[in-house]
Amino acid sequence: MEHELMAGLKYDGDKPIMYLVRPEFTEGVGKVLTFGAKKYAPWNWAEGINYSRLLSALDRHMNAFKKGEDLDPETGLSHLYHAGCCLMFLSCFEEWGKKEFDDRYIVDND
Question: How do residues 21-46 score in pLDDT, each as one tens digit?
Answer without folding.
Answer: 999 999 999 999 999 999 999 999 99
